[in-house]
Amino acid sequence: MKRVFVRLIVLGGLTAAGWNSTYTQSAEMSAMMVLRSQARSIAEEVVTEIRARLPDTSAVGLNVAARLEPMIVENGFLDVLNSAGFKPWLVPRGETDGSLVQVNVLHQMVRYSAVPSGLFERVVQTTLEARFRDSSAGEVIYLGNYQRSRVDTVLQREDPLIRKSQGRPGEFEELSFFEKVAGPVLMITGAFLIVYLFFTVRN
């Protein structure tokens, strides 16, 4: 398995040395953006491996198998293939014509853990498996497993734009509008009731 592991300690600050640490707190470095960056990094490695087998202007199909939402990985591969000069298109599963990059999403994870300093350690990980079907040679080549991991420390947990579905790796789903609003509303209502009951009991 080919792995790239990055660990960042994000404490903030405005010095030149701490600028990147502060930047990781911005929306551009959200957990979703890290997942996209990891998918694109793996795509660059895969495209490098298949480049020798295809002319730069070749049309190449892309099929991404994921349990729930393949778009993060699909977009990363489409972007890299286009940038490399290929002509990619999305191929339904089971189609057999032409050269094809097949990607299986084995694992995607975003996890937060509280640390004694009051910050949160964030772990973001992507694991993909890739194969390449070379139509000109009439063969399927197993390219291998690819993993990207990032561990950093952030000031706060992000709003849960994505969550694990039923606890299975590789499955993420967007929360509904009601779910995004209900949490804060219930917390505020609960706090109000506690204060109200406290003063009612005292009186």
Produce a short descriptive summary.
The protein is of the alpha/beta class and 203 residues long. The chain has four helices and eight strands. It has a six-stranded mixed sheet with strand order 1-6-5-4-2-3, with helices on one face. Strands 7-8 form a two-stranded antiparallel ribbon.
What does this structure look like?
With 203 residues, this protein is of the alpha/beta class. The chain has one domain (2-175): Rossmann fold. It is 32% helix and 34% strand. The protein has 4 helices and 8 strands. It has a 6-stranded mixed sheet with strand order 1-6-5-4-2-3, with helices on one face. Strands 7-8 form a two-stranded antiparallel sheet. Strand 7 and strand 8 (172-174) form a beta hairpin. The longest helix has 26 residues, at 177-202. The N and C termini lie far apart (67 Å). The relative contact order is 0.17.
The CATH first-level class comes to Alpha Beta
The class by helix and strand makeup works out as: alpha/beta
Number of strands: 8
Which ranges are low-confidence, i.e. pLDDT below 50, for 5 or more consecutive residues?
Answer: 3-28, 160-177
- Overall geometry: elongated
* Helix/strand order: EHHEHEEEEEEH
Instruction: Identify the strand order in the major beta sheet.
Output: 1-6-5-4-2-3
**What's the main sheet like?**
6 strands, mixed
